[in-house]
């Protein structure tokens, strides 16, 4: 693939009819035949091979939370090992590849010059080896570790572990009354009163003897199916506190997804030209942009009617 790509770029550079593309193509060819390009390419490949298994498990609809969390811990360990012991093998692999394709390898002990072309300036206190090892290799790995620690901190991990006690797979093997009670007490204190917390433990004891034995609630795989099954056979009214907790757990993926979408949309809505936008107006715009499917159901007439219902208006919009 590399040989074919280089051949195509060379043909474009030599083609006189494509003069407008020649400059960009020439720059692209210089980039993909540089040592830095192949170093970063091999480095990314090494990281992706470590975290790919974790990504596959997290995207699995029927993932086992406890095993997924074990995989998170293992991934952190492997990335840390790459940081401590992976530099020399990676550099050797990149060097071997560059020798195979006659790509110039820089002297790692030479001074590093930042920038490109006539804008390059030499930094006497930084060598090229230092630049690749610390400014690229180490910083990128630390960024990955920081991201994993941020997404799977102690608070989040504990929440997921306690939530897994409601998992109905394998004959409710993960069911633990103490874990479920602690889930409600620690993470949902505003959703259960003190009296409800006391009653929840006794309700869970009845639930443990009843629900796993019910024919229609056996062989289900997800908490979502459990919630639907409880409602279908009327158990949600018998165990309302457990049903409430299950519904709260089901909102976890939605709440995190909405938060991510909000931050992504913020970059679109609040631009450099709109940086004085107030929080309330910004929040209203974010809701409209994020919940497009819901907003599309509103008609102009209904919006005007709602506008008129707030107070009397002098202007006639209809």
From TrEMBL:
GO terms for molecular function: protein dimerization activity. It comes from the Eukaryota. InterPro entries: AtLOH3-like, HATC_C_dom, RNaseH-like_sf. Residues 235-293 form the HAT C-terminal dimerisation domain. This is HAT C-terminal dimerisation domain-containing protein. It comes from Tetracentron sinense. The lineage of its organism: Eukaryota, Viridiplantae, Streptophyta, Embryophyta, Tracheophyta.
């Amino acid at each position: 693939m590399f040989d074919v790509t280089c051949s195509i770029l060379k043909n474009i550079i030599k083609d006189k009819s494509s003069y407008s593309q020649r400059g960009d193509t020439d720059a692209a060819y210089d980039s993909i035949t540089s040592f830095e390009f192949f170093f970063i390419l091999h480095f990314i490949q090494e990281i992706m091979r470590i975290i790919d298994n974790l990504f596959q498990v997290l995207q699995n609809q029927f993932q086992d939370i406890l095993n997924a969390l074990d995989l998170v811990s293992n991934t952190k360990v492997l990335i840390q090992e790459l940081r401590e012991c992976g530099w020399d093998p990676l550099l050797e692999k990149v060097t071997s590849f560059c020798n195979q394709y006659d790509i110039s390898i820089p002297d790692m002990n030479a001074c590093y010059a930042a920038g490109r072309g006539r804008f390059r300036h030499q930094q006497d206190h930084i060598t090229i080896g230092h630049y690749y090892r610390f400014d690229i290799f180490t910083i990128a790995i630390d960024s990955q570790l920081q991201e994993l620690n941020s997404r799977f901190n102690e608070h989040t991990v504990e929440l997921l572990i306690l939530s897994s006690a409601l998992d109905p797979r394998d004959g409710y093997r993960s069911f633990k009354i103490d874990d479920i009670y602690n889930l409600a007490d620690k993470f949902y204190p505003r959703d259960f009163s003190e009296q409800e917390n006391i009653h929840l433990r006794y309700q869970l004891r009845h639930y443990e003897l009843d629900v796993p034995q019910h024919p229609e609630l056996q062989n289900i795989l997800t908490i979502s199916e459990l919630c639907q099954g409880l409602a279908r056979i009327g158990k949600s009214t018998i165990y309302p506190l457990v049903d409430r907790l299950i519904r709260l757990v089901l909102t976890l993926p939605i709440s995190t997804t909405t938060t991510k979408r909000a931050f992504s949309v913020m970059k679109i809505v609040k631009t450099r030209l709109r940086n004085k936008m107030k929080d309330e107006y910004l929040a209203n715009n974010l809701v409209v942009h994020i919940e497009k499917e819901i907003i599309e159901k509103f008609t102009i007439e209904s919006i005007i009617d709602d506008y008129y219902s707030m107070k009397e208006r002098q202007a006639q919009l209809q």
